[in-house]
Structures are given as C-alpha cells and as structure tokens.
Amino acid sequence: MADAHTLFEPDGPPRRVDAGGTVFRLAEGGEQETGLIGYETRLARTHRVWERRGTSTRRVKEIRGLVCEGCGLDAEARFGRGIAMSCMEAHHLSPVARMPEEERPVRAEEFAVLCPTCHRVSHRLDRPDDLEGLRAIVQRSSLTPAFRRTGPGRDRR
Predict the structure, then answer these.
(1) Could you tell me the CA-to-CA distances from 111 to 5, 106, 154 in Å, in that order?
(2) CA spacing 20 to 30 A to 75: which of 69, 86, 118, 125?
(3) For residue 92, what are the β-bridge partners?
(4) In the chain, which residues have pLDDT < 70?
(5) Angle CA 57–58–60, to nearest 5
(6) Sign, Cα dihedral of 78, 83, 86, 87
(7) How far is CA 18 from the centre of its chain?
(8) Which key words tag this protein in UniProt (predicted)?
(9) How does DSSP assign 43-70, residue by residue?
C-alpha cells in the first residue's frame, strides 16, 4: 500500500521511510508468504527545521502542570515529576509556520500541555488548536473496552 512515506524509484522496488530515517525495502509476493515484511537500512537526511527554545516549554509545564489537557492523564502522579517533565509535551496552539522569525514574547496560555499520544493526534486534526475536538476524540475512544482497561489512571492488569 502506498502512502506519503513510500518512495517509488524507477530502478527498484518501492521503499518506505520512517520518521527516524530508516529505509525499508518492502517484501515482495513470495517473501511475504514466509513472514518476511521487508528489508531495512539507514538513510541520512538533511533539512531545515524551525525550533522553539526548550526554556519556554519547561516553564509552560511548570505553570500549567503535568496533567494532559487532552485525555486527563496526570503524568506526575503516575510516573513522578522527573519522568513527567521529560515526557509531557508543551503544544503551541499556533503552528510554527505562522511564528515570526524575530523574537517575540510568549505566554503560557499560548500552549497546551499534552501527553505524547494526544500531541500526535492534535497535529492530525484540521485545527491543531482545537482542544475541544481532541477531547471529543478521546471521549469517544474511552468508550471502547480496551481504553477502559488501560486508559489514564488505570492499571494494565
């Protein structure tokens, strides 16, 4: 199946690239029957990125707390402050692409503190600043039996 991460080259079979830069050659018909899913090798990529300073995100988490504003996971209570500070993410409600190049003041209200899963989901919404839409998705998924067993604040037993 082709998607945005599949490379098609005229001189070889299709390949996939994951976020870490690993290239996979997809297994072909006979190989798939043996359980082989493909081959992999590393790929080095260079590209320009816009980054925010980590100081802002650390301050946001100190001010807003370490409870996911999407699903309600209280990461500090569940994992301890150190792990929660390193794992919870400060999601800027205004996309980086719209951020001016020059320095500007930022406020904690311009961020949402999210767990990694909610952060990824928020970037797949039509509007990454739509926290209510994110919460609605989380609420719908929490009705499934699997989420009730392993959702935020619940043991995996």
Answers:
(1) 29, 9, 27
(2) 125
(3) 111
(4) 1-45, 47-54, 143-157
(5) 60
(6) negative
(7) 13
(8) Endonuclease, Hydrolase, Nuclease
(9) -----------HHHHHHHHHHH-SB-TT
- What is the DSSP-derived secondary structure letter of residue 98? G
Helices in the chain by DSSP H: which ranges?
Answer: 29-33, 54-64, 75-79, 81-87, 116-122, 131-141, 145-150
Report d(CA 58, CA 66) in Å as an integer. 11
Written as one letter, the residue type at 139 is: Q
Q: What is the pLDDT of residue 106?
A: 82
Per residue in 37-81, pLDDT (tens digit) is 666 666 666 766 666 666 788 999 999 999 999 999 999 999 999
- Name the residue among 52, 49, 23, 50 with its Cα closest to residue 38: 23
Q: Shortest CA distance to 18 belongs to which of 58, 45, 36?
A: 45
Q: CA 50: distance to chain centroid?
A: 17
Give the contacts of 157 (CB within 8 A, at least 6 positions apart): none
Query: Position 61: which residue type?
Result: K
51-to-44, 56, 101, 148 alpha-carbon distances in Å: 20, 11, 11, 36
Question: Tokens representing 16?
Answer: 């996939």
**Max Cα–Cα distance, the chain, nearest Å:** 59
